[in-house]
Design brief:
This protein is mostly helical. It is built from 18 helices and no strands. About 1% of the residues have low confidence.
Length: 369
């Protein structure tokens, strides 16, 4: 366990480190060196080293209320460890996460378990970016690290973070369906929200017209603003998650405890503005710059579908947890065209401006505010 760093400063040190990395990347962009072979190789080596350091830093953190639901996961872990019942494999609900926790509770310790969680969360995203962008993966991976919710979903919404990371990795195996399906099954076994991501990915794979999804997203914004409360009440009454009442309680507000920012059951214009950044970037490159890349269209359409679902329940308690389902996909939507094609004479400088724009929301929420 890493116990020589004040727990109150733990997340802040990560935020400052990422800020320095973003500023360094922006400097590389404005000197025109960011896409040169020497810089790419150097960044790729640093990316591997930082990934390993971050896995250890996040995974070996102390068990503290400063890390949100870490203490609740630890409570469940210790309950299992102190139980007289032997470990037995179960297939119900979020079976994979449950079995992993139960096994580690019986045969290992809490810090090794959290280290595994961090490895799955961070390592899957690193591998996914490496598979999509090859040696140029560092800048896309940095965009992921600089999302304002990244740290939170490694120490607070742990299951959601692990499941979504595995799903992002699954999307990189589109040409190897057995691997892709297997990773989706594992991801859904960690967190049920992955079913929405899988459903959206399946829908957009067969129906590819981005205009329809963009129009649908805009329609959802209008409908949610007008009658969103009624939609939430209806969805809560349908009990979509079966025996799991967390979904219904978030929609009705019964689970309103803890973080005030996430609890505000109002129309979240701030979160909508953040999501609109991904919508606007995809629109610009697909419709204005005629960027014809089937894989990017699939990623963008999947983002639109998952984000549209959140828009419909935008007033829910812990609204960010529903938005995060799509926000996990958004970094790829934001950075993919920049890394796959040159659109401007001063392409590197435009990439630098984009990195600053993408990071602005994070800087405001995680450092400035």
């Amino acid at each position: 366990m890493i116990d020589f760093i004040p727990v109150s400063e733990y997340a802040h040190y990560f935020d400052v480190t990422v800020l320095c990395m973003v500023l360094t990347a922006v400097w590389q962009c404005h000197t025109g060196s960011v896409l040169k072979k020497e810089t790419v190789s150097l960044n790729a080596m640093w990316g591997v080293l930082f990934t390993l350091i971050l896995i250890l830093y996040m995974g070996l953190r102390p068990v503290s209320v400063y890390f949100g639901d870490t203490v609740n996961y630890a409570k469940g872990f210790y309950t299992a460890a102190n139980s007289c019942d032997p470990f037995s494999w179960q297939w119900e609900g979020e079976w994979l996460f449950h079995n992993l926790m139960q096994w580690f509770a019986k045969y290992s310790d809490i810090h090794t378990f959290f280290l595994l969680c961090a490895t799955v969360y961070i390592g899957s995203l690193w591998l996914a970016m490496q598979r999509i962008f090859k040696e140029y993966y560092y800048i896309p991976f940095l965009v992921i690290l600089s999302m304002f919710t990244f740290w939170s979903y490694g120490v607070n919404g742990i299951r959601n973070g692990m499941g979504a990371s595995l799903f992002i990795l699954a999307m990189t195996y589109v040409n190897r369906p057995p691997v892709m399906i297997g990773l989706c099954v594992l991801a859904a076994g960690i967190h049920k929200s992955i079913y929405l991501m899988v459903g959206a990915g399946t829908l957009t794979w067969f129906i590819k017209n981005s205009y329809w999804y963009l129009a649908g997203w805009g329609a959802c914004v209008g409908v949610s603003y007008a009658v969103g409360g009624r939609i939430q009440a209806y969805l809560a009454a349908t009990n979509l998650m079966g025996g799991d009442n967390r979904f219904s309680s978030y929609l009705t507000g019964d689970n309103m405890v803890g973080e005030i920012v996430q609890m505000s059951m109002t129309f979240r214009w701030d979160f909508l503005l953040y999501s609109a950044m991904g919508v606007a970037v995809g629109y610009y490159f697909i419709f204005r710059r005629n960027f014809k890349d089937e894989y990017y269209h699939w990623i963008y359409n999947t983002f639109l579908v998952t984000n549209a679902f959140w828009v419909l329940v935008i007033r829910a308690a812990y609204s960010n947890r529903f938005a995060q389902i799509s926000w996990f996909i958004m970094p790829v939507v934001l950075i993919y065209p920049f890394m796959k094609e040159r659109f401007w004479v001063n392409h590197e400088k435009m990439l630098g401006y984009a990195l600053l724009t993408f990071y602005a929301f994070t800087f405001y929420f995680n450092i400035w505010k």
